[in-house]
Amino acid sequence: MKRIFFFAVLFILSSAAQAQLNYGLYLRGSVATQTHSDPSTPEDGTTQWDNLSTFGAGAFLQKDFTRRLGVKSRLLWQKKGFSESADFGIVGSPIFFENATFQNTFDCLSADLLGHVYLLKRSKIDLFFQGGGELSYLLKYKLESDITPNNLFYPMNSYGSGFNKWNASWIVGLGCTLNQIVSLELEVNRDFTPTLKKENLVVKNWLWSLGMNISIPRIFR
Amino acid sequence: MHPLYWDYAITNRQIAPAVNEQGLVKVEGKIYQFTKGALTKIVKDGDYSRVATLGSYTVPTETAYIMVVSAAIDAPCAPIDFSSLRVWKMPTNKKRVKVEIIGTSVSNFGDFSGPCAMMPYGATCQFQIRTQAQKKNFWGTWVYSSGFSPSLTISAATWSYRYTLFNSGCSGFTTTYTNTGINSQYPTPTFTGFWPATNNGTFGLNPNTSGWWLFNSGGVKRYITCAGIRVFTYSIPASYNIFGPSDWNLNL
Fold this sequence. Notes:
Oligomer: heterodimer
Radius of gyration of chain B: 22 Å
Number of domains of chain B: 2
Number of helices of chain A: 3
CATH topology of chain A: Porin
Largest interface: A-B, 25 and 35 residues
Helix content of chain A: 10-25%
Strand order of the largest sheet of chain A: 1-3-4-5-6-7-8-10
Order of helices and strands of chain B: EEEEEEEEEEEEEEEEE
Structural class of chain B: mainly beta
Radius of gyration of chain A: 20 Å
Number of strands of chain B: 17
Structural class of chain A: mainly beta
Order of helices and strands of chain A: HEEEEEEHEEEEH
Strand content of chain A: over 45%
Largest sheet of chain B: 7 strands, antiparallel
Strand content of chain B: over 45%
Largest sheet of chain A: 8 strands, antiparallel, barrel
Helix content of chain B: under 10%
CATH architecture of chain A: Beta Barrel
């Protein structure tokens, strides 16, 4: 994984040295969640936490090889995670029922490599499909859900620690470029390696994102 | 040739080599009888003629000559589990609900200048009703959906708990307390209740704490609880009110 990450960064740097490249800033807003399952009880299926609104920011580098095909790489910091809404109470006490929402965040540094297929190419607008892979490095995480009594139960009693530092995911999405300057992209990002794997717990990230690329050379041309 | 197998009918297998076929052992003038249940019966004056009466004791109690405690499986500082776990019930193939009891206790909060078992004067206790209701979404995964949070009814639940205070060193029994002395503000071990909506709930029943019960007096740590707090019986009828009754009789 580290090797893939290294080559992705190398691609960005080496490509930047060449002419006719598109590069710029990348911003995104995401709806993030995690799924979890217990391999020992497959009949219980996969459970998905509540959605968490997150964001990310970084830089992109893009090169088109033909009129229809291109490749793009991004290096970004992003937040993944999930939220959990839970009810609490003490039977017989005034605190009979209360509701709490826990925000659980995972800060990652990610590099991705995406292939582009232009579905439509006009002077003012391009439509494209993109797909590829992402490699993420977990910088830090915060689990608000990991408190008593919430962490007495599955799955939070197994969450706690042991998250993988390196994580790989696939990405597919659709986008459009306006005036060759700004691109808007809607994409889904799903782990294919678990961010946490234990005997009774497999956790994977899942994000839906709306991203925006702002091309620096095309602003100033 | 078939192997010959023989075993003691007692819960605590660790003391099997020390007892006779009736589960009896005499130590320092007291007769102890270990049973296949959770009860240990003690003839305090060591009079063997009282052993015949031990069979009539089925719950923890104490008389002038007999003491019955639930200590056979409650080893010092060992966790106690009195949970009642359940599988999902599915009112439709797109919805599922589950109610269960999570119960754990352990005693080991104390003076750690000696071994853990020597001076524990505190205990954790988790006694919780756990409620879950989930809906299957478009992607085939189960979610805690705000659109699916049914009501829950608990009808005439009853339960009993006890703890035993020992002498220092956990080597001798002193007094067993039943349904008393823990969280006196909400001590009543009977309950009927209704939650209008819950799909990811955790509701504590007494005795329950997120920290420690400290067994002390006037700030002095001197009451020793080697075996934690045991909820030794409960009957908690629960209904998740969705598409007709889905009932759980959570009991121990």
